[in-house]
Design a protein that fits this description.
single chain; about 170 residues; mainly beta; Immunoglobulin-like; five-stranded mixed beta sheet; about 0% helix; about 60% strand; elongated
Length: about 170
């Protein structure tokens, strides 16, 4: 890493610069380095968080990375490589260095461990998180009919939501 004092055109010191991308001459004038050997291994600056979503809802994993040269990002589900589809989208924000994996409609087959790897010629970094898919409470149509034997009247109920084995809510219809 080079450590140089930059001088303004008036000769006053403006700051101390520490950077692997500059070189300084004997007059303490700094210029961009043309050294192509400078590289930094990837680092995970912000790890993925475990996610839990209802079936059919979107989910997003995001990872902030650094490294020079810019690392190649790969995504894995249960240690298997993921390939982008209409339902699984990769995005990398060049300004913030955030890599994202977006699942548009997450279902039970998407549950499991997700891993993001960042690789360049100086090294590799990875982080993982788990996705849990919860089942949305399904509202079923349960038809209950009661026949009265002393007349021809029939009473039926529809749209019963069974909340638990001990309670239910029904809208009646005769």
């Amino acid at each position: 890493m080079s450590r140089c004092i930059l001088k303004r055109y008036t000769g006053a010191e403006s700051c101390i610069l520490c950077c692997s991308q500059v070189r300084c001459d004997s007059r303490e004038v700094c210029s961009p380095s043309d050294d192509s050997d400078s590289s930094n291994p990837p680092q995970i600056l912000r790890h993925m968080e475990p996610q839990s979503v209802e079936a059919g809802k979107p989910v997003r994993f995001s990872v902030a990375v650094s490294g020079l040269p810019k690392p190649e990002i790969s995504w894995f589900h249960n240690r298997q490589p993921i390939h982008p589809t209409k339902n699984v989208v990769f995005h990398f924000d060049e300004v913030t260095n955030i890599a994202m994996l977006i699942i548009v409609d997450a279902f039970s087959e998407h549950a499991g461990q997700y891993t993001c790897t960042a690789v360049n010629n100086a090294g590799e970094a990875a982080c993982s998180a788990t996705l849990t898919i919860t089942q949305e409470e399904e509202e079923g149509n349960l038809w209950l009919c009661r026949l009265q034997t002393d007349s021809t009247e029939t009473t039926c109920f529809s749209s019963c939501k069974i909340n638990s084995p001990f309670s239910s809510t029904c809208k009646g219809m005769s």
